[in-house]
């Protein structure tokens, strides 16, 4: 039987160091309880380059926006796995916690989302996890409260399979 050791919360400086170590040329703004990272991702060799911004405030889930190029919705305004404010839906409530490095989770999940987005643009079919037309909260802030490492996830929290490969930097 495996024993689970609760992870500790990482400091903003540790998160920033992780991001800076992989993306030394990206823009990073660090405050005591917040960080904002703006960098370029290339999800695959055939992909375009995306400029994304990750805003993280202690006690909240990181919020990710694609700055350029502008994401294209359908004629009805539908854009899969996004919240009403334009941030990306990358994970289920409870799947990310403050003991995880953003560079090892949120960044590769963003690259994976972008790859699924490109496939959706070409085929009209979302191949990412879950039904893209299924209900989402209006905003990532509407997700259940961030669970501290070592605590149980809220009832009904779903867990998605994610790949851990890091995207290429440009």
Annotate the secondary structure layout:
Elements: H1 12-22, E1 27-30, E2 34-42, E3 50-57, E4 63-68, H2 106-123, E5 168-169
Antiparallel strand pairs: 1-2, 2-3, 2-5, 3-4
Note down, in words, how this protein is organized.
The protein has 170 residues and is α+β, with helices and mostly antiparallel strands. The protein has a single domain (12-148), classed as Ubiquitin Conjugating Enzyme (Roll), CATH 3.10.110. It is built from two helices and five strands. It has helices spanning 12-22, 106-123; strands at 27-30, 34-42, 50-57, 63-68, 168-169. Strands 1, 2, 3, 4 and 5 form a five-stranded antiparallel sheet that branches. Strand 1 (27-30) and strand 2 form a beta hairpin. It is globular and about 40 Å long. The model is unreliable at 143-169 (pLDDT under 50).
CATH class: Alpha Beta
Tertiary shape: globular
Strand content: 15-25%
Evaluate the radius of gyration: 16 Å
User: pLDDT average, as an integer?
Assistant: 80
Low-confidence stretches: 143-169
Domain unit count = 1
Could you say what the CATH topology is called? Ubiquitin Conjugating Enzyme
Helix share of residues? 10-25%
